[in-house]
Structure formats: structure tokens, C-alpha cells
Specification:
The structure is a homodimer of 159-residue chains.
Chain A: H1 6-18, E1 21-28, E2 31-41, E3 48-53, H2 57-64, E4 67-73, E5 87-96, H3 102-114, E6 127-142, E7 145-150, H4 151-156
Antiparallel strand pairs in A: 1-2, 1-4, 2-3, 3-6, 4-5, 5-6, 6-7
């Protein structure tokens, strides 16, 4: 596996910043469950925020086991070979964030700027923010271009 | 959870038949890993075929533990609220399929009809077909419209 060049870092940053929904993998009774979630990366890619309902299976799963994976993929644009779509799979642990205070209010404003239609969830007691801290990432920039990244390398893409 | 009406069944069938790539959740050292894969459903939705390389992490994971989840989601079309995108998460076990014989040749023809650019993989010894047999499915038809489906109900969508 060769090192990543500037173009690959730029592509990684672009999909993390532009893609709005991702596939979240959680553990459910010891087996994988994948579900679609909206997400918001921190500016330096050191954390990825989710907003989920306690009624959702993935939230129950995260309450029971913090280990998750989040796959962020370019949406299929109908190209001849969909295997060339860029995607990155993060692996790490999640923590639930407090539902009040200054950092909550800042995050709420950022979240609403990206997902205005989710305003209704801020009146519902069962919704909360979670933060995924990536331990590592596997980035597929295209066919045959796969890179294993540390959390530090992932943050380099944000620069 | 109310029963699914004909429109919901039609939407489920449409995303299963039209979406080309999905998020595969596997177990890696006991933790979830999510990766993007191309897939091809059987006509009656009784099985979902993948074509993967033994060099890929998800294939190593499936060789070690057959339990997987596959999330098939409408691609983000830029709508105001991405949480309304339809998606279905299957859960079940995978088996590796033989790389020769009549059923292999039929599947190869079907696969190439959908993914012509993957022809090159048929000359590579490390690629093989796998079949996911769903045990159940969780279908989100849109905001607040979530249905738990048995494998039998999933097959009903194929009629």
C-alpha cells in the first residue's frame, strides 16, 4: 500500500464534508446491524456527530456496546462501474453527549444549519447527540486504491 | 407498527431492484466493520449475492463469522431531509458459492449484465460469489414509517 498523495487526501476530505448520510454498523446481540444515519464531522475530523432516537435499534445497540463502524460513501451517480465510488469506513467508539450547555447549543446550531428539517427532534426527549471518535479508517479512493489510515492520518485530510 | 400497504411493498421492491451498492456489516475481532459492496438480489428476494475478493477485510470477516447485515439505501438526491430516504437493513448469514458449474455460470451472466465492468474479476482467483440469506429485515419507508419484516414478508415484496 503506497502512501496517499494530495489528490487522495482532497477526495477523502470532500466525501467526509459533502456526504450527508452514512451507514452505521453496531453490535446487536453479538451480530452486526447496519442502519442509515445523518452525521456531521468535526472540522478537524477528530469526531463525527450523530443525532439518534433512543427508540432506534442502533441507539439501543450503542448503549450496550460502544464499538461502531461508520461508512461514508459517494452516492451512486450511475457511472459504469459503481465499485469505483469513493468511500471511507471509520472504526471507533461512541459516547453520548449532554443535551444541554454551551457545547450542546453550538452543536445544535451546526446541526440545524446542515439538517434544518430535523428541528422537530429538538422538542423530543428521546433524541440525543452521540460522538464517534475514530480509532482508524479504511479509505477506498477507487478501484485498487485502498489505504489504511490512523486517526492522525484522517485528521491530516482536514487540513 | 401498522402493516405495510401496497405502496410500501412497491417502494421496498424498487430500492432492492434498483440500488446497485449497499453497506455490508461484518464482525471483525468482535467489533462491527461496514464496507461498500455491489449486490444482486435473487428474483424472489430469498437471497442476495455479493462478489468479493478474499483479499478484502469483509471477506476475511465472513470466512470467520457468517453473520452479516446489509443496508440498501436510496442514494441521497439532495432533498431537504435526507432522513426520509428509504432504506432496508437485512440481517442473516452468508455462504460462499462454488466458482464453477451451471448455477455459477447463470449467476455470472446475471452479474455481468448488471456490472459489466467487473468482467476482469472473473479472471482473478481471489474473487468469489457469496449468498446472503436474510433472516429478517428492517425497512424504513420514510420518517416514522419503520417495519420489521420476516424473510417471508420480504419475499412478498418480490411478487
Amino acid at each position: 500500500m503506497a502512501g496517499m498523495d494530495a489528490d487522495a487526501y482532497a477526495l477523502l476530505a470532500r466525501i467526509i464534508r459533502e456526504v450527508r448520510v452514512a451507514a452505521l454498523g453496531t453490535l446487536r446481540q453479538g451480530a452486526p446491524l447496519v442502519s442509515m444515519v445523518a452525521f456531521l464531522p468535526e472540522a478537524d475530523f477528530g469526531g463525527f456527530r450523530l443525532r439518534v432516537s433512543r427508540l432506534a435499534w442502533h441507539t439501543q445497540d450503542m448503549l450496550a456496546d460502544a464499538r461502531v463502524s461508520l461508512s461514508i460513501a459517494e452516492p451512486d451517480d450511475g457511472r459504469a462501474d459503481p465499485q469505483t465510488l469513493a468511500r471511507v469506513a471509520l472504526r471507533g467508539d461512541v459516547v453520548q453527549l449532554p443535551g444541554e450547555g454551551e457545547s450542546f447549543e453550538r452543536l445544535k446550531a451546526d446541526w440545524l444549519a446542515r439538517f434544518p428539517e430535523s428541528a422537530v427532534t429538538f422538542g423530543l426527549a428521546d433524541f440525543s447527540f452521540w460522538r464517534l471518535v475514530p480509532r482508524d479508517a479504511r479509505f477506498v479512493a477507487g478501484l485498487g486504491r485502498t489505504y489504511n489510515l490512523s486517526a492522525e492520518s484522517l485528521r491530516r485530510a482536514a487540513i
